[in-house]
Amino acid sequence: MAVKKIALKALDLMTTSDVAKELGVTIRSVQLWVEQGVLDGWKTPGGHRRITRASFNRIALGQIDDEKVLADKSKLKVVVVEDDQEMLMLYRLTIDSWALPIDVKLISSACEGVVYISQHTPDLLITDLMMPDMDGFSMLKVLRGLDDFASMAIVVVTGLQPHEIVAKGGLPKAVRLYGKNPVPFWEMRELMRGLLDKKTELMAAEK
To answer: What CATH code is assigned to 2-70?
Structure first.
């Protein structure tokens, strides 16, 4: 353990527990700051977060805008993985028109989507199933099997028929299924409103 601490210090890196202890906050708060980009950090292959001391120093010296952090934290983080560019544009225009506190990341590659999600755990993932660079069924099975994404809501939007989905092994539990023709955006909006309300309640409980 002592060798590990010396190595991290030499690299100017800190663990989440180190940062939490120094700042007097919870480890979950530190994790959220990393996910929001407030702290510079990443996950090791073993799943442990490492945070740069420079970004820790910025917070320790009060150089972070607390109001901005709270505003960013209260937004619903949504990732849309869809290889059809027209569909991505439709998502962007529709979600923006709702004027809700939603931060949307549009990704056209399933592989890129998995990498992004592993680094910035969203509140909601919206994804297609049939993509050229990855089997959406396998992607969802892996994500649902990891504790880090247990609380992440997942919506599948696909042109596949129910019997085709069953033939391919079906979807994991707690995955909401929507069709594409047309996409039921009114239902999606109500889902996001519910997730926003839940997030607000959790934030209030943490205070």
So the answer is: 1.10.1660
